[in-house]
Design brief:
The protein has 111 residues and is mainly alpha-helical. It has two domains: 2-42, no CATH class; 54-110, 2-Layer Sandwich (Alpha-Beta Plaits). It contains five helices and four strands; from the N terminus they run H-H-H-E-H-E-E-H-E. It has a two-stranded antiparallel sheet with strand order 1-4. The two termini are 27 Å apart.
């Protein structure tokens, strides 16, 4: 639909600016269509930059329960006891990524 709309704007415009305005959209659709489709169809961001589409989780196999992520989280969105596997409380998570940056054991995953 975005491609069709861009083509219509390009073809129906009477001035040079209108004819070239859709070019960035058409160009990104040409080279990055898979990213557009992942955002729209799968609600995922392959580049991992769209906050609304990122989910942080903790890998139970990698987490040693050190508590670094728990202490660093500004929203107290991580639960777990010392030396136990921690978990992200998705409802409280603001997706700031501090837990991801803090974890030395790479147990916090971004998806």
């Amino acid at each position: 639909m975005l491609e069709e709309l861009s083509t219509v704007v390009k073809d129906a415009s009477l001035c040079g600016l209108g004819k070239t305005a859709p070019n960035p959209v058409l160009s990104t659709l040409h080279y990055f269509r898979h990213e557009y489709e992942a955002h729209i169809r799968n609600k995922k961001c392959p580049a991992g930059v769209c906050k609304a589409l990122i989910t942080f989780t903790i890998d139970a196999d990698a987490c040693i329960g050190c508590g670094a992520c728990l202490r660093a989280c500004p929203q107290t969105a991580i639960s777990g006891d010392k030396k136990q596997v921690h978990a992200v409380i998705q409802e409280k998570c603001i997706k700031c990524g501090i837990c991801f940056d803090t974890c030395k054991f790479k147990a916090v995953r971004k998806a």
